[in-house]
Structures are given as structure tokens and as C-alpha cells.
Write a structure and sequence with these properties.
This protein is α/β, with parallel strands linked by helices. Helix content is 38%, strand content 19%. A 5-stranded parallel β-sheet has the order 7-6-5-10-11, sandwiched between helices. The protein has a 5-stranded mixed β-sheet with strand order 15-12-17-18-19. Strand 6, helix 3 and strand 7 form a beta-alpha-beta unit.
């Protein structure tokens, strides 16, 4: 009889343990859902929260690649025992980082974390005063260009991570074997302005300032959505051409791209809106002319040393004068030498949207002063 009672008690104990494990597992699933639900627009990364670490999967938002980059963001100094072996462990918060692109740098600028940047690839179009001062003082260094990185300098800078764009040409072979974690940053491939801006949450997880990033993004989202709603009252939707010729080819993006979405949200239609591509590609002049010659506006971003005006545009290619937007003086322009376009716009989509609405529907934002885009004079 005692033996039966003993077995019965053991059975109850095992059932209790299994229920406890199930509850713990269910709780873990809930926390993972909470972490994932915090990402509303970005398609390129997902997050599962396990308390002292997060599992972060990064994929190509455009769907052009099926590679998955797996990282475990581990709170510095805590237990790493349960982390899956196929995840690269990154101890957080990171203290020193190297950025390979201006878009990556924009996240640190927005989060007031420029002091964490110890290396960059280029100072072209660099406006940020703090980062320029860090370059002068030696706190931040130029590490060379893609394919020609100064490996000895990179090692000396002792970064916790290096942000890379894995699909860009040039390669990272020179730094792959330096035993420094490479973080694939794919915010530039997001097809929506808010999706791209939401990568500040990804960067903030590495920096340990998630709450700050959440608050900043909420403000970005609020302003963007208010502007987007404002445009619904517009009675007309102008068409917009974008880009210009370079070495005989015209670089365009598809109708499912970031730029096309931005135009839609601003109450206009991209001239290639019916194209289902999300990325960019080259076409010849004749293709652009056949589809965009009668566009109401023409958006252009370039680096011009001097006053870029209609005469200068015509001198670069006389055929430009045949475009309707040229004739009507409705070229939308941003000079990269004068404005921190690449440095700020990835994390200021609401400002860019306001600029475009001011141009397309000036009556809706009569008090707005252009920051990046304005009509060429």
C-alpha cells in the first residue's frame, strides 16, 4: 500500500512539473509575441525576447534574397547557456561600432549616440557637427572604402560590431576574418518610409536604449500619419518622374519601392507606379521618355558644385528641355552638397513627406518651410 501511495505522489509531482514547464513555455511565447508586435512597419527583422537575451532574425525586406542573418543580443555579463548554436552572440549594450554607410550613421544621429561610432568609410556629404569633431579629435577614424579597408586600423579601433550592407558590391573579405561581429543592416531595402525609420529600434536594442527609440518612433509615426491623412482631402494627384541620366543610363526604382510609397503618401503618383519591383534598375532614355515625359513633376537629387538651375540641367542633356516638368518649371531638387539628405532623411520621413506635400498640394501646408526638397528656381 505504501508503495502505491509513493507512486501516486511521484505521478502528481511529475504532472506538476510538466504543467510548470508548459506555463513557463507559454509565458515565453507571450513575451516573444510582445517583442514582435512592437515592430509595426519594418519587414527586415523580427525579435523574440527571452529575458536576458533576444533572438533577432534579419532578412531581405524586398524578398530578393532568402538568406537569414541570426543574432542573439545578450545582456552583457549574463548567462548564454540556452542560446541556440546557430545564432551569433552580440553582447549589449555595444560600446564602439563601425558604420559602413550614411544610412546606418543616421540611426546613431537620431538616437543621440554618435559617440559610439569609432569608424566610418567616407566623410562625403557628412554634415553632423559632433561626428566631424570626433574625426578631428581622433575619436572616430576613416577606415577606407569597400574592398580596401585598413584592417590594422579596424583592429586597433576594437569595435564591438561592424554594420555592413551584405548585398552591396565591393565585399568585406578584408574584415571577415578579423573576429569582429558583422551586423547586416538592411534598413535601406525597406519599401516604406516608416519601415525604414523603424530600424532605429533595431539599433537601439544594440545600444540598450529601446525605450528612447520607441518614444522617438512613436512621434515620427504620429506626425507621418497626420500628414498622410491630410492629403486625403486633395482633389488631384499629380504624376512624378524621378532621377536623371548617368553614363547613358537612367536609374529608376519600381512601383513598390520606398520612393513610390513616399509619393503616394504625399498625394502623388510615381511615373512607374504600375511596375511591381521594389528595388532599382537601369533603363535607357527612350524608356523613361515614353513613360515620364508628361509627368507633372520631376524629382532630382544630385551633387552639384554651384547653382544648379534649369539652364545647368539643360546643358547636361538638351533632351531634358522636352519634359513637361522642365517646361512648367516643376523640378523638385535637393543638392547633396548643401543639405544632409542621406544623413537625416532615413529617420525623418515625416519631414520629407511634409516637403513633398508642400510642393504637390501647397494649400494643405501653407506654413511649412522646405527642409530637403523644394522647387528648383
Amino acid at each position: 500500500m505504501k508503495k502505491v501511495v509513493y507512486l501516486f505522489i511521484c505521478s502528481l509531482f511529475l504532472i506538476s512539473c510538466n504543467q510548470s514547464k508548459k506555463t513557463s513555455s507559454d509565458s515565453g511565447k507571450d513575451s516573444k509575441l510582445d517583442a514582435s508586435s512592437n515592430i509595426k512597419y519594418a519587414k527586415g527583422f523580427t525579435v523574440e525576447d527571452y529575458g536576458n537575451y533576444r533572438l533577432v532574425d534579419i532578412t531581405d525586406p524586398s524578398g530578393e534574397s532568402d538568406v537569414v542573418y541570426k543574432y542573439a543580443f545578450l545582456q552583457r555579463g549574463t548567462d548564454r547557456e540556452d542560446i541556440p548554436s546557430d545564432y551569433q552572440i552580440i553582447e549589449t549594450p555595444v560600446r564602439n561600432v563601425i558604420c559602413m554607410t550614411t544610412l546606418q550613421t543616421s540611426n546613431f544621429i537620431k538616437l543621440n549616440a554618435v559617440d559610439r561610432i569609432v569608424g566610418i568609410t567616407s566623410t562625403r556629404f557628412l554634415f553632423n557637427e559632433q561626428l566631424n569633431n570626433q574625426l578631428k579629435s581622433g575619436k572616430t577614424h576613416k577606415i577606407g572604402i569597400e574592398g580596401e579597408f585598413d584592417s590594422e586600423l579596424v583592429i586597433a579601433l576594437n569595435p564591438d560590431v561592424i554594420f555592413v550592407s551584405p548585398f552591396k558590391k565591393g565585399g568585406y573579405d578584408a574584415i571577415r576574418n578579423l573576429e569582429i561581429p558583422l551586423i547586416s543592416f538592411l534598413g535601406y531595402k525597406e519599401s516604406s518610409p516608416l519601415g525604414q525609420a523603424e530600424w532605429i529600434k533595431f539599433t537601439a536594442m544594440l545600444l540598450g536604449i529601446e525605450e528612447q527609440a520607441d518614444q522617438q518612433f512613436e512621434e515620427i509615426e504620429k506626425k507621418y500619419k497626420e500628414l498622410e491623412a491630410l492629403v486625403t482631402s486633395a482633389s488631384e494627384r499629380p504624376t512624378v518622374l524621378s532621377g536623371e541620366l548617368h553614363s547613358g543610363n537612367w536609374y529608376v526604382v519600381g512601383g513598390n519601392s520606398y520612393l513610390a510609397q513616399l509619393f503616394r503618401d504625399a498625394g502623388a503618383d510615381y511615373f512607374m507606379k504600375n511596375d511591381d519591383e521594389s528595388g532599382g534598375f537601369y533603363v535607357d532614355f527612350e524608356t523613361v521618355y515614353s513613360q515620364g515625359a508628361n509627368a507633372d513633376y520631376w524629382r532630382m537629387v544630385n551633387s552639384y558644385n554651384g547653382d544648379f538651375n534649369y539652364e545647368a540641367l539643360k546643358q547636361s542633356d538638351a533632351r531634358y528641355a522636352d519634359f513637361k516638368a522642365f517646361k512648367d518649371k516643376k523640378v523638385i531638387y535637393c543638392n547633396l552638397r548643401e543639405k544632409p539628405f542621406y544623413e537625416n532623411t532615413p529617420v525623418e520621413p515625416e519631414v520629407v513627406l511634409a516637403d513633398l506635400i508642400k510642393i504637390f498640394h501647397p494649400d494643405l501646408l501653407p506654413e511649412h518651410k522646405p527642409v530637403y526638397y523644394e522647387l528648383m528656381k
